[in-house]
Write a structure and sequence with these properties.
Elements: E1 5-11, H1 20-38, E2 42-44, H2 62-77, E3 85-94, E4 97-106, E5 109-115, E6 139-143, E7 146-151, E8 155-159, E9 166-171, H3 173-176, H4 181-187, E10 192-197, H5 205-220, E11 223-228, E12 244-248, E13 251-256, E14 263-269, H6 270-279, E15 292-296, H7 300-304, H8 323-347, E16 353-356, H9 361-376, E17 384-388, H10 396-409, E18 412-415, H11 419-429, H12 438-459, E19 462-465, H13 469-474, E20 487-488, H14 495-508, H15 512-523, H16 543-547, H17 550-563, H18 567-578, H19 584-600, H20 602-605, H21 634-647
Parallel strand pairs: 1-2, 2-3, 8-15, 9-10, 10-11, 16-17, 16-19, 17-18, 19-20
Antiparallel strand pairs: 1-14, 3-4, 4-5, 6-7, 8-9, 11-12, 12-13
């Protein structure tokens, strides 16, 4: 459970209708198997698993009800050695009434009994004939050899070793009603909802069930484990499929398909859920005074061990892996960027846009967005003034791509060499041109920005910013140089997504020349081209050699900015997602670079120009990131120092 990961399992145990002895052994075997083989710490078994859900009027038989109570005692005694929280369905008689309950146990101790609140008595369901509606109010009863067992819906089970793990139960129909009890459970602090179910299978029902579980986990920002009865139930009128589900905050982590293997196992990140709830100001919490909080222990060993991750960690969180979804995402991003710019152009009554076109990825994307914005406004593309400004490091390849792209798109292209002006500037400030330091580089960037701003003034237009989210996160921009513009269309687009956006246009534009140029831009190394080219005229300055692979930095950025994860956890997730491409030392090394630059360069982000937010992570000082420019990185870097020792 280290780092907040809790292995959970929804398991469909084998069942023989009304054969309690057999069912108890099947439940024990299923729980033991998933704990010992998978390391599960929370195991959810189906509704009424100890008797079978389809016993009908046999629930009125004293023999069955007594056997169920004895069976739960046996289940408890035979699972005392399992370091896991177990939830199993059992009929419980209280004061002459029968309740459909979830029994919650840990290390052989019965922690509580949670009754079903909503009893379906419609269509094929006839539970109201046998079961009473449960109560939210918690009372204490004697059951299965225990003299004081909490009984009621409002019981939460909190792990002593990992307090962020707070478990609540609801039963089948409880999820299908307009206001499921899990709403109150989550508002009272539950991070993991467990549903013991006996949902029969019908055509199309599995899709609806899946949407219910994922939707509820999203609304409540929780983990949701759903275990359903299987084919061993009576098939007198309906059939049960054992459809098991594990979801987290709207994402399906694991699914046991209907009529499949009868289990779904994954890891719920409870600390991530707490982080999301903390961030969301509209997530309403409620006092827990009316809830009974039952603490349970799984042992220090369970807490300290590193849960093996089987859930998929997206190595490219900003870029969908599915081609169809990726194309849809690219179209959405382009629409947001273009409509944002179109609104700004219309508001300022600008019929011209000025953009520095380098032949690199970012300026290419910015030009494509600007063209689309002009088309939306039905403005002449000749109102787009693309300026290529060759300097000391400009190569023929990037220069030619800029020229060819401008021509293919039908925009107005200007070429202005910055070399004479920069040399004059060097002379003015007394800088030796042979010294290729930060002054040498940034003087070129600022000269280009001056040209763009002044041309925009001449034309009565706007300077379109080209810098992307990844560069802003790392501070890889010259302050008051390429850092500045009048509208920054790429400001919340990460570098890994920039590449796919350009590829999307290359694949769909229908212009052979444009496609050829865009493909070559994609094949060109990312570089600011501020240092002289090599002897054979190739790019000498490669950005990723200097600040690290954007693939890694975008992963770091997403987990840090979107989820607020600690360096240790970011490192662990990066190893899991990208470990086949990078060794531990490489990941740790570039993660240190990320944190150093992320903290040190906030002053650049504090005065960013306007630009449209396109995804869930952004660094606008007016929106997602209110970060002090003088914040210290010592705590984060200290944690990284420990990681590097471990990774050596």
């Amino acid at each position: 459970m280290k780092d907040g990961f809790v292995k959970v399992a929804a398991v469909t145990s084998e069942v023989r209708v009304a054969d309690v002895v057999s069912n108890v052994e099947a439940c024990i075997a299923a729980a033991r198997n998933v704990v010992e083989s998978e390391g599960a710490r929370v195991v959810v078994l189906p509704e009424l698993a100890l008797t079978g859900y389809t016993c009908e009027d046999l629930f009125w038989q004293e023999t069955l009800i007594r056997a169920a109570e004895e069976g739960l005692s046996s289940f408890a005694s035979k699972t005392v050695d399992l370091d896991a929280l177990l939830l199993v369905g059992v009929p419980v008689r209280v004061m002459g009434k029968l309740y459909n309950c979830a029994a919650v146990l840990a290390r052989g101790v019965l922690l509580g009994l949670v009754p079903k609140l909503h009893i379906p008595t419609y269509n094929e369901f006839y539970e109201g004939r046998h079961f009473e509606r449960g109560s939210k109010q918690v009372t204490y009863i004697s059951y299965a050899g225990n003299t004081s067992v909490p009984f009621g819906s409002k019981v939460l089970f909190r792990c002593e070793e990992l307090p962020e793990l707070v478990v609540a139960a609801e039963i089948c129909e409880d999820l299908w009603v307009p206001q499921p009890p899990s709403i109150e459970h989550a508002q009272a602090g539950a991070t993991l909802i467990c549903n013991l179910s006996a949902s029969n299978e019908l055509v199309g029902k599995s899709d609806y069930r899946r949407s219910l579980v994922t939707g509820q986990s999203a609304r409540l920002i929780c983990g949701y484990v759903y275990a359903s009865a299987g084919t061993g139930e009576s098939t007198q009128d309906v059939v049960y499929s054992g459809h098991d589900l594990v979801a987290e905050n709207g994402r399906m982590l694991a699914e046991g398909k209907p009529f499949g293997e009868g289990r779904a196992v994954s890891e719920i990140d409870v600390r991530l859920l707490i982080s999301e709830r903390t961030r969301m100001s509209t997530y309403a919490t409620s006092a827990t005074a009316s809830y009974e909080i039952v603490d349970f222990s799984l042992g220090e060993e369970a807490f300290s061990c590193e849960t093996a991750l089987t859930r998929w960690i997206d190595p490219h969180p900003f870029v969908p892996s599915d081609p169809a979804r990726r194309a849809e995402r690219c179209e959405e991003v382009f629409a947001i960027q273009a409509h944002g710019l179109a609104k700004r152009l219309a508001h300022t009554r600008s019929r011209h846009a000025v953009i520095g076109l380098s032949g690199g990825l970012d300026s290419t994307l910015a030009l494509l967005v600007t063209v689309r914005a002009f088309d939306l406004l039905e403005l002449d593309r000749k109102g787009i003034i693309a300026i290529t400004m060759p300097g000391f490091g400009t190569t023929d390849r990037t220069h030619d791509n800029a020229v060819r792209l401008a021509d293919a798109l039908g925009v107005d292209l200007h070429e202005i060499s910055i070399a004479p002006a920069v040399r004059q500037h060097f002379s003015d400030i007394g800088h030796d041109e042979s010294v290729h330091d930060v002054t040498y580089e940034n003087s070129q960037a600022r000269e280009r920005t001056q040209i763009l701003m002044d041309v925009a003034n001449q034309a009565g237009g706007l300077v379109i910013g080209t810098g992307d989210l990844s560069e802003l996160a790392l501070g890889w921009a010259t302050y008051n140089g390429d850092h500045m513009s009048m509208y920054a269309v790429n400001a919340s687009v990460p570098k890994t997504l920039v590449r796919h956006l350009v590829r999307y246009v290359a694949d769909s534009c229908g212009n052979e020349v444009e496609t050829t140029v865009l493909l070559d831009v994609l094949d060109t190394p990312v570089s600011p081209e501020l240092l002289p080219a090599t002897g054979d005229g190739k790019i000498s300055q490669r950005t990723e050699d200097l600040v690290g692979p954007y693939e890694l930095h975008d992963f770091f950025l997403y987990e840090v900015l979107r989820h607020g994860m600690s360096p240790r956890k970011v490192f662990r997730l990066a190893r899991h997602a990208l470990g086949e491409r990078y060794d531990d030392a490489t990941i740790a090394g570039w993660l240190k670079v990320f944190y150093r630059r992320y903290f040190a360069q906030q002053f650049k982000r504090s005065c960013l120009p306007d630009g449209p937010k396109v995804g869930s992570a952004a660094v606008s000082p007016r929106g997602d990131l209110r970060m002090p420019s003088d914040a210290c990185a010592d705590l984060w870097l200290a944690e990284l120092e420990e990681l590097e020792v471990l990774s050596e």
